[in-house]
Amino acid sequence: MASLFTIGELARRTGLSVKTIRFYSDSGLLPPTERTRAGYRLYDAAALARLEYVRTLRELGLGLDDVERALAREDGVARLAARHVEALDEQIRRLRLRRAVLRAVAKRGSGPAEVRLMNQLATMPDEERKRLLDEFWDEVSAGLDVDGEFYAWMRSAKPELPDDPSPEQLEAWIELAELVRDPDFRRLIRGMSETNAAARAAGEPLAVSAEQQEQWFGWLERARVAVDAGLPPDSPEARALADEIASTWDEGMPRTKLADRVTAGADERAERYWRLLAVINSWPPVPERHHAAHWIADALRHST
């Protein structure tokens, strides 16, 4: 014979008060399995699982009417338990986000306004985060005939904030959300898109091979070493690098124009976009290269 529990026994097993359990029972959320001859209510294992589910739904903020509707779709211990696990998973996710927000608040010494913003952004659903970036790319490329393959690749990188983010990941997401909503940043990337579209219309080559990209990163590394060593962009070493870049990259293009292109693609905020995504998504760190790129641009100008 299956075990039956009194309200007192349910209270001991769940930690809920007898008064609360009796309220749920009187409300129809927890009907008794049967009654004793004296009229005392008894509950079976399915009722116990139902009670745990009711508690979880209530802790998640559902009203009694919503709880009743949720219960109306369930029957049997297994299905109740499965639904209970789903609800607990959601509760755990929210608690982890709340913990991450509090850790970030403690680290940043945030004020009330920033705390509200951080909590709002941290609890934003994944689809809403992705939609925020999609809207950003829509705006900065709207009406322009840009390189479709390149922009599809740019758009494909989406923030995937884990259920248990570190304070650094949460701060990175908050900064990224603020960045893509910044009108100045949108104007910057819009300008880059217009440059891309103009180059495409002029028939200029836009695709960069893996070999060319590797070569560019090598030049940037040499420039970084030069910057760290305190070499000015008008030094002999800078002139040698500028000569190599100019002769390899695009013969016949004025060096000042080449320098302008390097500068246009070396904005610190554009680089910051990818550095933040790398933190959020636990990608390998994106090296800081904009200082080296600006040094190369200055070297090109000095070498004319």
List keywords for this structure.
Globin-like, Multidrug-efflux Transporter Regulator, Chain: A, Domain 2, 304 residues, DNA binding, MerR_fam, 1% strand
The Cα radius of gyration reads 30 Å
The total of beta strands comes to: 2
Major sheet size, sense and barrel closure = 2 strands, antiparallel
> What proportion of the residues form beta strands (DSSP E)?
under 5%
Indicate the CATH class of one domain: Mainly Alpha
Order of helices and strands: HHEEHHHHHHHHHHHHH
**Could you give the distance between the termini?**
95 Å
Q: What value does the average pLDDT take?
A: 86
Please name the CATH architecture of one domain. Answer: Orthogonal Bundle
Shape: elongated
Please estimate the helix content: 55-70%
Oligomer: single chain
Low-confidence stretches: none
GO molecular function: DNA binding; DNA-binding transcription factor activity
Pfam families: MerR_1 (PF13411)
Organism: Amycolatopsis arida
Keywords: DNA-binding
Task: Write up this protein.
- By secondary structure, the protein is mainly alpha-helical.
- Among the domains are: 69 residues, Orthogonal Bundle (Multidrug-efflux Transporter Regulator, Chain: A, Domain 2), CATH 1.10.1660.10; 95 residues, Globin-like, CATH 1.10.490.
- Helix content is 69%, strand content 1%.
- It contains 15 helices and two strands.
- Helix 3 packs parallel to helix 5, helix 7 packs across helix 10 and helix 11 crosses helix 15.
- It is elongated.
- It starts with 6 loop residues before the first helix and ends with a helix.
- It holds the Pfam family MerR_1.
- GO terms for molecular function: DNA binding; DNA-binding transcription factor activity.
- Keywords: DNA-binding.
